[in-house]
Structures are given as C-alpha cells and as structure tokens.
Design brief:
Length: 230
C-alpha cells in the first residue's frame, strides 16, 4: 500500500478517505486521514483491462469515451455547489471532480483561516454526500469509470475519494538505485512510494508539455473515430 505524506506540501493539501465512489466505507477519518488510498477490497477493480458498468467489467477496447464528461457534469451537478465550473480530470479508471466552494466568513491568523476552510469543506462533504453518491452511480453507468470528488477554498484543497491503481514495471539497476536513494534519504518509505514521487515531480515540471501531448492525442483519436468502418 502506498502512503501519501508526500502529497501534503506545506500542510495545505489534504487527501481524504475512500467512501463516496457510490458506497460508504466505515471508519472514515476526515481530511487528514492516512488510511487506504483507494478501492482495495471494495470492487473498484484497478487492472488495466477491466473497468465498470456491466457484468464482467469494461474491457480496454470498448471502454466508453469520456470526452463529454465535463459537459455532462456541468449539466448534472446541482446549482450552487461550486462558485464556478469544476475541474474535471479523466483517465482510464477514474473521473475526478474538483470545485471551488464559497469560503466561510472568519477572522484570525492564517492558521485559523485554514482551519475554517477545512471545516467548511468537511461540511460540504457531509451535506452533499447522498447526492454525490447518486451522481457517481450515474457517471459509472455512463462512462464505465468511478467518480472521485474534491473541493477547495483558496489554497486549501481536500480530495475526498480517489483510487490508487497499481502499475507494474521493470527497472534496471541504475533505475532502481534512484528509487533506493530516495528511500535511504527518507523522501519515500518504499520503492513504490518513491516511484510515485518521481511521477508527481515529472508531472509538475512538464505540465505544459503533457497538456500539449494530451491535446495532440485527442486530435488523433478524433480523426481515427471519423475514419471509415472496416
């Protein structure tokens, strides 16, 4: 199991527990929880070739397109939940909805304001739970993916639910030594955690390039879909 202490830079970003992917999971510990990071043991799948939405799971080749997920969610989400359009992130296993909510009226120092923001986000989480679970079920049926939720106020962001999907790879000795150096230095507690740290670091420093790459890939998919049927 991978832990997540490296996902909380400066104590401003919090990761929550699983539980709103269409069902409740007992034992939630709130925004600062350090429990399981995904759907292990709750039927979430996680293998590349399997998904959701029908008996036996979706296969990679016939996984429904989620190109319109942001538009569908914009129309489906209740008015007033977020102060603007939410950010919608999509991959093969999961759709994540992250939106800004109205901040509480509070005074005090930065620490007090941060605590108030976390409290307001937790209130939003509890008040919207039943509706979010219903929308998650509908999204799963439509797109064959689990729906994850999050909310933010300023620079305080809480991700309520998300999957931790195992990814297998083979590394040569010099590549393994990179991971072992991170473990020995205390940056990560295991090779798997060190590898996740490396992926996150690359994503932060190549965000524009990755965005352009995804855009180019979407154009290829569009042209392929417009081609003749064989």
């Amino acid at each position: 199991m991978m832990h997540n202490h490296h996902d909380i830079p400066g104590g401003r970003r919090f990761r929550g527990e699983p539980g709103e992917h269409g069902q409740e999971v007992p034992g939630e510990r709130g925004p600062r929880g350090r429990g399981p990071r995904g759907g292990h043991g709750h039927g979430f799948g996680g293998g590349r070739g399997r998904g959701f939405g029908r008996p036996g799971g979706w296969q990679q080749a016939d996984l429904p397109s989620a190109d319109d997920a942001a538009a569908w969610l914009t129309g489906r989400l209740p008015a007033g939940w977020y102060t603007g359009a939410p950010t919608v992130l999509v991959d093969r296993e999961e759709i994540t909805v992250l939106g800004e909510i109205a901040p509480p009226e509070t005074s005090g120092d930065e620490s007090a304001q941060q605590a108030a923001a976390v409290g307001r986000i937790q209130r939003f989480r509890e008040e919207t739970r039943d509706q979010r679970m219903q929308i998650a079920n509908e999204a799963e049926a439509r797109y064959g993916r689990k729906l994850a939720w999050g909310a933010s106020i300023g620079d305080v962001e809480v991700l309520f639910t998300h999957l931790a999907v195992p990814v297998m790879t083979r590394l040569r000795q010099n590549e393994r030594q990179v991971l072992d150096t991170l473990v020995d230095a205390g940056v990560a507690r295991s090779r798997s955690e060190a590898l996740a740290w490396c992926v996150k670091l690359v994503g932060e420093h190549t965000d524009e390039w990755l965005t352009n790459l995804r855009g180019a890939m979407s154009q290829v998919d569009k042209l392929r879909a417009e081609g003749p049927d064989l």
